[in-house]
């Protein structure tokens, strides 16, 4: 009887597979034909590119110092709310690195008058879910709600911002969950590379913290969380961004009703961190991962801040190098040589520093050639001008990507929050689009020479030590063990 059932199940699965197979083969044939066939020569040129417009933002500030950026977009009946609080993991006590992440996991787990279940139910009743995150410079809370439930949502959020209580039982559970999460992340080579990279780049500067340590999680107490919450969650260090279906005046009045009575303490706010040093040793820093069949490579260096004059040119340079699918890096080590599936690079600005990161997961046997080609592409960018086609594609990609991000209300709210944390105005979005569009090959050359040369990078290699040492020996790069 059992064998009969198994045969029927297998027969059904085989039949289903065979039914799909011709479609799959047809799709692959079409893709292959498109790849091999030359593009028509009479395709029309790109249309005139529309300038990237900054959203219309109404700036308000309550008497208690709370900042508001309001983007009214009547129509679709939803509102994205994002709350940004200055002071993230870089502001954590030295003996509690990464405690901001634990705070973000527990901030909605109780107040003086609401327990965790009540908070979750109230937020869900407004049509949304509350997400809290911590990064190097800030802690954020965000949700997307029905516009008809705005008053109720603000009431619950206001209670959390002013009265989060960090109940002992909830903190204990969050610590256990966060420890489990950290163990899972530590099994990922990309996380190991990120943690080692920031330690190499930033040294003892607070920016080196990318996640809490197990020791920090174990030592953290509800009292620690309450103390940090009191220090940072104060109206003169908080921004509320709203994007969606509301009227500005009504929104302003509702925020005043719910948060206007929130008082800032007399003590000064958390002092912003000083910028880290920007010198790094050009060496390979090995992170041991015994038994690994691949090597994770990350090359890190310092880049421009979000408000620097050459930020946009650096973004264009990065898009040409490795920050887009048509980039040189992808064409070289993915399409041409097949060393890796998805290499990439990105520029990540913080409030006081910025990183330019190259990443590739490669087979053990091509670790050396892959690193050699990544360095080649960095140096090629720093020493040769982009073609007109590369420049045009990179600029179209960056402006188009930003335009798409602005179509999503939650994404726009988070974008604006990031600008505020960096001390920039909302019109920076429009300035970014204009400066990207105006970037010349000479601008790219200048930024590339300043930031992208391979000798400026620290190289993180996660994998088998012998594989890495043997692979990089012909390149003559010093090898160190990551701390």
How would you describe the overall organization of this protein?
- This protein is an alpha+beta fold.
- The chain has 17 helices and 12 strands.
- It starts with a helix and ends with a strand.
- It folds into 2 domains: 202 residues, Cytochrome Bc1 Complex, Chain A, domain 1 (2-Layer Sandwich), CATH 3.30.830.10; 198 residues, Metalloenzyme, LuxS/M16 peptidase-like (Cytochrome Bc1 Complex, Chain A, domain 1), CATH 3.30.830.
- The radius of gyration is 25 Å and the shape is globular.
- The strands form 2 sheets. It has a 6-stranded mixed sheet, sandwiched between helices.
- Helix 11 packs antiparallel against helix 12.
- The N terminus is likely disordered.
Ordered list of secondary-structure elements with their pairings:
Elements: H1 2-36, E1 58-61, E2 67-72, E3 78-86, H2 99-106, H3 116-125, E4 131-134, E5 138-146, H4 150-163, H5 168-185, H6 189-202, H7 214-219, H8 222-232, E6 238-244, H9 248-259, E7 284-288, E8 294-302, H10 311-321, H11 328-336, E9 344-349, E10 354-363, H12 367-383, H13 388-407, H14 409-421, H15 428-438, H16 441-451, E11 458-463, H17 465-472, E12 479-481
Parallel strand pairs: 2-6, 7-11, 7-12
Antiparallel strand pairs: 1-2, 3-5, 3-6, 4-5, 8-10, 8-11, 9-10
